[in-house]
Specification:
The protein has eight helices and ten strands. It is an alpha/beta fold. The chain has a single domain, classed as P-loop containing nucleotide triphosphate hydrolases (Rossmann fold, 3-Layer(aba) Sandwich). Strands 6-7-8-3-9-10 form a six-stranded mixed β-sheet, sandwiched between helices. Strands 2-1-4-5 form a four-stranded antiparallel β-sheet, with helices on one face. Helix 5 runs parallel beside helix 6. It is globular.
Length: 255
């Protein structure tokens, strides 16, 4: 299987010699093309730091992160910006949509920056909007649509450039239960039908149960790993809860 992401012995330190904190402690794992991988852990476990390093928002102290056969820890300046723009898709908890742009313009922005032809932009925006059920709101502004619709706009924006890897950071955190379920079903669609490779950071077992594999982070290390295999989503959810119990995680999330 083609490896989209290779994380090799990465470490991340914060602070100085007199007050040094190790946020990531020698973590290694791979993500292959078409996988939907969840990263879970309690607050302060290092999961967000890990995502920030993979997303190029932060830099590792040691080790390598290879995406699409390119060591991103060596990229700088315009090369880093170009890589981030063309190879990664981002979905955040607070949507990060531009209020002065319509849904169509938000989705199309990355293609506009890449100087894709208007005809091709229109074709791709319409195709993705139709697949995620937001075609009828493309001319509306973010303040005119619901939280669930905003997140589907953000999902469309993340996938429009056909990135090698989609990074989602607590994407259901600002959504009600119905909108959260719709978004997670959209992730299933992106992964299953459009073959998107997704890395999801979440503390929520319900959200994580939509993934195919879960990495549990504790004290900056990989504590455990679960693979869905032939399990139903409910069975996988129950296995996740069992590991969360060992981690002392949040048990308030139920199906």
């Amino acid at each position: 299987m083609e490896k989209v992401l290779e994380v090799k012995n990465i470490e991340k330190y914060y602070g100085n010699k007199s007050n040094l904190t190790k946020a990531i402690d020698n973590i290694s794992f791979d993500v292959t093309k078409g996988e939907f991988v969840g990263i879970m852990g309690a607050s302060g476990s290092g999961k967000t730091t890990l995502l920030n390093c993979i997303s190029t928002i932060d830099r590792v102290t040691a080790g390598k992160i290879i995406i699409n056969n390119q060591d991103i820890t060596k990229l700088k300046g315009n090369n880093l910006n170009k890589f981030r723009r063309e190879e990664l898709g981002f979905i955040f908890q607070d949507f990060n949509l531009l209020d002065t742009l319509t849904a169509y313009e938000n989705i199309a922005l990355a293609l506009t920056i890449q100087r894709v032809s208007p005809k091709e932009i229109d074709r791709r925006v319409i195709e993705i909007a139709r697949s995620l059920g937001i075609e009828e709101i493309l001319n509306k502004y973010p303040y005119q649509v619901s939280g669930g619709q905003k997140q589907r706009i953000a999902s469309s924006r993340a996938i429009i450039t056909n990135p090698k890897l989609i990074l989602a950071d607590e994407p259901t955190g600002a959504l009600d239960s119905k909108s959260a379920r719709q978004l997670l079903e959209n992730f299933e669609y992106l992964n299953g039908k459009m073959y998107a490779t997704i890395l999801l950071v979440t503390h929520d077992a319900f959200s994580a149960s939509y993934a195919n594999r879960i990495l549990f982070i504790k004290d900056g290390k990989i504590f455990n790993e679960l693979t869905k295999g032939n399990s139903t989503r409910k069975e996988f959810f129950e296995k996740i809860i069992e590991v969360q119990t060992l981690l002392g995680g949040d048990l308030n999330n139920v199906l």
